[in-house]
Design a protein that fits this description.
It contains twelve helices and five strands. With 336 residues, the chain is mostly helical. The strands form two sheets. Strands 2-4-3 form a three-stranded mixed beta sheet, covered by helices on one side.
Length: 336
């Protein structure tokens, strides 16, 4: 059970702050004009998309402004990625869908996106450039043996870029509807990446513990445990559908044991880093750039600790949830 215990701080902290998620669901119910909200409604958008369209050039310039607190070198590398055509930008016949970044030691990273000019496309581009620059810094600062960072830290760099972009846009939002759009974007990400992935992680913990106790894992037992978790995570004010108990069976990550919690810790780390960097903490910025340059030169936990994000301490989680609680209050005040 020692391996399972690694997730306990994350699960404990999410449980103790679950009211933030309940408040988000209540805001959704009100904005959707519903008497009662169901789990199906929880996926509905509640703010109109920002109608502005971006050219690729405009997207790059926006990202450069958002990541400017990371320093001149980082901004110049974003421009270099554009100028040297590291990025396969637009949809094309036979091209893979989605977006990703790949790299091989000794050559510049490559990014694939399907950019369509929406704000979501801009966020996707920022995300993949975060991966690319993580690869670039690790390859240029580490020998080949220690250059390959692991999945535990991979989503930190990409989501830190996204959170810096989101904070930049939120700070400059002029209308109430625009502010609500960005808050909805933030909490949609928090819902899917912190609360939902932690629920998945808890399901893994429960099922592996059952197996280690010698209990048979039947379909009915798994469905029962998964439904109970949904009851807790969504709360008694959100109506569930009976079919949600089968959702576990379609989650491919469960076949890669103890993978899903890394999404949650990744976003928590990114929120922690972006808070300090966005507010001009130069020491925090330099430590973060050191994190990007670390590859796998140490354990991922220690690499994050050296960068100022110690996931073995409650304070990191408490600070992030305090920030989210503050943003929920801002949203509530906007609706008055």
């Amino acid at each position: 059970m020692k391996r399972l215990a690694k997730n306990n701080r994350l699960i404990k902290k999410v449980h103790s702050n679950i009211d933030i998620f309940y408040d988000y669901m209540e805001i959704k119910r009100k904005m959707l004009g519903l008497d009662k909200i169901s789990i199906v409604d929880s996926f509905a958008p509640i703010a109109k998309n920002v109608s502005k369209k971006y050219t690729y050039d405009e997207a790059i310039e926006l990202i450069k402004k958002a990541v400017a607190p990371l320093g001149d070198e980082y901004v110049k590398l974003i421009q270099r990625a554009k100028d040297e055509r590291w990025i396969d930008v637009y949809p094309n016949a036979g091209k893979d869908s989605g977006a990703y970044s790949i790299h091989a030691y000794g050559i510049t990273p490559l990014v694939l996106t399907n950019f369509t000019g929406t704000l979501d496309s801009v966020f996707t581009l920022a995300h993949e450039l975060g991966h690319a620059l993580h690869s670039y810094f690790s390859m240029t600062k580490q020998k080949i043996q220690t250059s390959e960072y692991v999945i535990f830290v991979a989503e930190v760099a990409s989501t830190t870029n996204e959170m810096l972009l989101l904070r930049y846009l939120m700070q400059r939002a002029k209308s109430t509807s625009e502010k609500i759009y960005y808050l909805d974007k933030l909490f949609s990400d928090v819902k899917s990446t912190i609360f939902r992935q932690t629920m998945f992680s808890e399901f893994e913990q429960i099922t592996h513990a059952m197996y280690e106790r010698g209990e048979p894992l039947s379909k009915d037992k798994l469905c029962k445990e998964y439904y109970k978790l949904n009851q807790f995570y969504f709360g008694d004010k959100v109506e569930l559908v009976d079919e949600v108990k089968y959702e576990w069976a379609r989650i491919p990550h469960f076949f890669r044991s103890f993978y899903v919690y890394k999404y949650a810790t990744g976003l928590i780390s990114a929120l922690n880093f972006s808070e300090k960097i966005f507010n001009g903490d130069l020491a925090a910025r330099d430590k973060y750039l050191g994190f990007l340059s670390a590859g796998c030169s140490d354990t991922p936990i220690k690499i994050l600790q050296k960068a100022g994000c110690d996931l073995e301490k409650d304070e990191i989680f408490d600070d992030v949830f305090a920030y989210l609680r503050k943003q929920i209050k801002t949203w509530i005040n906007l609706l008055k």
